[in-house]
Amino acid sequence: MTLRVGSIVTALGGELHGDANRLIEGLAPLEGANSAHLSFLSHPKYQQQLARSIAGCVIVGPQMLAVALARGDCIVTDDPYLYFARVTQLWKSHLPQLQQARIHPSAVIDPGAQVHPNARVGALCVVEAGACIGADTVLASRVTVGENCCIGARCIVHSGVVIGADGFGFAPNNGTWEKIEQLGAVRIGDDVEIGANTCIDRGALQDTVIEDGVKLDNLIQIGHNVRVGAHTAMAGCAGVAGSATIGAHCTVGGGAVVLGHLTLADGVHISAASVATRSILKPGHYTGMFPIDDNAVWEKNAASVKQLSSLRERIRALEAQVKQLGSNSSTQKS
Fold it and tell me: Which of 33, 39, 124, 299 gives the lowest tally of CB atoms within 10 Å of its CB?
């Protein structure tokens, strides 16, 4: 398949500098591109790669125009990364579409479930009683949607996702555990994408809620009664414990953890591998981790961290002594 550069600009906008009739045979990163590829520069720090690239055409921001022109054709746009995302959508729309059954013969759908006529249900999926699947939503293979759980319109649910398993709720009883029945469900809004093998537990009493536009990567655990605000994104292996509330337009890095019953305000960004141990009520970028180091050095630093509390008290005591000595000295002078 090929697309003319001119047809891409006609469809998506941008300012073309170069040959509108150039044929593009594929999309590629700067370093791996050849003269038949379209590539992009998302950040000025990669401009050396841009200068060396032999891509047929490159998408750049206005500040990179001179560098781009020095090497060849380019499309200038205010947000190259967003433009590239839309190019991938345009490219996919031109690929041959395989004709597949709307509901795979191996899928199991309870008669009491509601699946919109435009939704697609892949191989070996299970949709239980009372569940609902919205218009143009796609369930890939081996997705399980538990009873009474609802997924909105235009969602993409990748292979192996489990929506509506029981939340982790047990009460201690003389050295054993008594199960707390999970009586809520899961409600997922519109335009949500859920990565492979991610699990979203049903609520204990109220529903677990994933609002519109949320993007979840692979292997994420969302506990019972969690609420995730609109257009929040979480990277792979993140975990959110029960009853946490995450605001809108947040990001949670890969492997990060949000502890239960905490609240993250709108616009909070958690770095990868961090652990949110308290509520964060002010937008911003937060990190909580101990930097990786040579193991022997790390052990010494970790041992020092354990002493911080006692060191703090000793410093306070010394400060009080210094203050008292200063006060006594002033008294003697007067």
Answer: 299
In percent, the amount of the chain with pLDDT more than 70 equals: 99
What's the token pair of residue 92? Answer: 């996919």
Note whether 229 and 250 are within 8 A (CB).
yes
Where does the chain have alpha helices with state H?
A: 5-12, 47-52, 65-71, 80-94, 295-306, 308-333
pLDDT value for 334: 62
Helix, strand, coil: what percent of the chain each, to 5? 25, 25, 50
Q: Which of 37, 158, 224, 269 is catalytic?
A: 224
Catalytic residue check, 17: no
Distances (CA, A) of 35 to 3, 57, 62, 95, 116: 14, 8, 22, 21, 44
Query: What CATH number has the domain spanning 3-94?
Result: 3.40.1390.10
pLDDT digits (tens, 9 = 90+) for 76-103: 999 999 999 999 999 999 998 878 889 9
State the fold for domain 108-286.
UDP N-Acetylglucosamine Acyltransferase; domain 1 (2.160.10)
Q: Give per-residue pLDDT as tens, 194-233.
A: 999 999 999 999 999 999 999 999 999 999 999 999 999 9
pLDDT for the residue numbered 289? 83
pTM attached to this predicted model: 0.91
Residues in the chain: 334
